[in-house]
Amino acid sequence: MSQFAINIIFVGGSFLLYILIAIWAKAGSTKDFYVAGGGVHPVTNGMAIGADWMSAASFISMAGLIAAGGYANSTFLMGWTGGYVLLAMLLAPYLRKFGKFTVPEFIGDRFYSKNARLVAVICLIVASVTYVIGQMAGAGVAFSRFLEVDATLGLIIAAVVVFMYAVMGGMKGITYTQVAQYCVLIIAYTIPAVFISLQLTGNALPPLGLFSTHTDSGLPILEKLNQVITDLGFNSYTADIDNKLNMVLFTLSLMIGTAGLPHVIIRFFTVPKVADARWSAGWALVFIALLYLTAPAVASMARLNLMTTIYPDGTDAAPILYEERPNWVKEWEVTGLIQFEDKNNDGRIQHYNASESFQSEAEARGWAGNELTVNRDILVLANPEIANLPGWVIGLIAAGGLAAALSTAAGLLLAISSAVSHDLIKGSINPNITEKGELLAARISMAVAIVVATWLGANPPGFAAQVVALAFGIAAASLFPALMMGIFSKRVNNVGAISGMLCGLAFTLVYIFVYKGWLFIPGTNNLPDTPENWVLGISPLSIGAVGAIVNFAVAFVVSNATEEPPVEIQELVESVRYPRGAGQAQDH
Q1: Which segments cross the bilayer (predicted)?
Q2: Which terminus of the chain has fewer Cβ atoms in its 10 Å neighbourhood, N or C?
């Protein structure tokens, strides 16, 4: 059987499973559509959170980032994991106690203002749309290789599948679909990692294999990897980070952005009571850890496999002839995600760091520039092929990559849909809309969101994890401070919260847009997105943490300069912080 046929079986079979689940769990009411009826078991919810959480960025792009940057890019791992702990401890139980369907609804009621709710809707849509671009881009990467179609056609196929199960089932359909998607993605991620760890180290547990001995060389695997890449001008894989300020801010931005992302927060509204929200958080942490503990090993082994494919004898003396390149390189070249240019016309593939520091060494070897460009997002997907694993493993990881992208995309689209139908239409435009009308509006808004996300996903402003990091920065600067102040401060009022959200969002977007070239500021000459041009060395991916500080500061200053919130609002905050019951989600 051909590899293409195997891929079709795995991917097509998983898609059929998702659609059948959506038909079985079709939403019949707004409560089903928004919170799955409020009766999801904590273990089921924890698994669904795990799938919602582990997006294309986690499955496809995070290991690729760590593989490319080593320790320097471990900030993604630390930030996303730490953020989940913040969410589980500081926000989820209290928001569940408040008992609303959506994040904007909480902000609107807590800050007793329709305007606050509208601002929260804007922040949610901006962050969620940015995030979903990364998921659709990741789906396009997976489709373009494994189904051998154009990336744009892959996006359209992904959009159709999401449309069928998300629009039909709402949160109820998405919840049980995500349970299936978690099972697919964690098996798909773990099995290739075990195979590759056994090949390279003889250790069947990838996290332990990362600290084991490389079978062929007898060196510790990280030492072997450092040796191979530093000989080619790349930074040491385990090198320390120079800009500690940017590292801290970036990790913080990912952490608080994670805690402020609505598509995960709304999952805690699907369980019957507050205690179940806490148990859901604990189970989700277990399910997430299974992948996150494996990712660093997958990253380092993928990088080593890539380098030893190009330099088969383990040294930089004899790079492989282009005509003798393995089949996996040929297959990925078709997608355009691997590109080769023979700059010195010697017929060999020179892959090295073409920086000024290595230029004289490269010229002495007769090299005229780096000749191989590898998209970081393909490393996890290509890993089984690089290691010559069985065809069914390749088909499995194809299904896993798509499950990761589609599970998070569905959760984000539901968050967008809920914000439009429940917070914008029912909350402001037409408060008297019937439940049937609201359900129709939710489905229409989700369909529109899918179309927009697909169009943007065809032209993403970076690779999957980079786009996702921008979304986290936006959420960090806008929603997280409002949620924290709404729960833990009785003094912050509606004027302060609105001012804080707008200032935090505007500050962050302007900084990002200037350095990403999307906004021209006279006198800046479209500043290049490089460390020497950043203010105090702070990357656009890290600015969300500073935006959050701006949000907190503006909110507190404005609140203290204006009237205190009403007594009933202060009592409401007190009741949320010290739960006496297990409030039920209500229809409003």
Answers
A1: 6-25, 46-71, 77-95, 116-134, 146-167, 179-200, 247-269, 281-302, 392-416, 437-457, 463-483, 495-514, 534-558
A2: N
Q: CA dihedral in degrees (277, 283, 286, 291; nearest 10)? A: -80
3-state secondary structure 280-296: HHHHHHHHHHHHHCCHH
Decide: 551 and 501 in contact? Cβ < 8 Å.
yes
Residue 466, class by beta-carbon neighbours within 10 Å (0-12 exposed, 13-18 middle, 19+ buried)?
Answer: buried
Cβ neighbours for 218, distance < 8 A, ≥ 6 positions apart? none
Assess whether pLDDT exceeds 90 at residue 277. no
Place of tokens 């809309």: 433
Question: Phi/psi class of residue 220: alpha, beta or left (left: φ > 0; alpha: ψ in -120 to 50)?
Answer: beta
Distances (CA, A) of 262 to 1, 132, 265, 395, 447: 43, 12, 5, 32, 19
* The predicted structure's pLDDT at residue 131: 79
Q: For the chain, what are the domain ranges? A: 22-301+387-463
Query: Per-residue confidence at 198, pLDDT binned at 50, 70, 90?
Result: very high
| Cβ atoms 430, 97 nearer than 8 A | no
Provide the pLDDT for residue 76: 83
DSSP secondary structure string for all residues of 16-41: HHHHHHHHHT---SHHHHHHGGG---
* 419 CB-side CA count, 13 A: 28
End-to-end CA distance of the chain: 55
DSSP 3-state of 517: coil
Homologous superfamily assigned to 22-301+387-463: Sodium/glucose cotransporter (1.20.1730.10)
- Residue 432 and residue 234: Cα distance in Å, rounded? 62
DSSP state of 348: B
CA-only gyration radius of the chain, Å: 24
Q: What b-and-e string marks burial along 194-215, b requiring 16 or more CB atoms within 10 Å of the CB? A: bbbbbbbbebebbbebbebbbe
* Residue at token pair 């359909």: 173
Measured CA angle at 165 (ends 159, 167), to 5 deg? 80
- Side-chain-side CA neighbours of residue 174 (13 Å): 33
Residue type at 576 in one-letter notation? V
Residues 6+ apart with CB under 8 A from 338: 329, 332, 372, 373, 374, 375, 378
What is the C-alpha to C-alpha distance for residues 118 and 505, in angstroms, rounded to an integer? 14
168 is written with which tokens?
């039909």
pLDDT digit string, tens, across residues 112-157: 999 999 999 988 888 888 777 777 776 776 777 677 777 778 778 8
SS3 549: helix
pLDDT in tens, 489-534: 999 999 999 999 999 999 998 888 787 765 555 555 556 667 888 8
> What is 184-225 written as a DSSP string?
HHHHHHHHHHHHHHHHHHS-SSHHHHTTSB-TTT-SBHHHHH
User: What pLDDT does residue 202 have?
Assistant: 94
Whether the pLDDT of residue 296 is over 90: the answer is yes
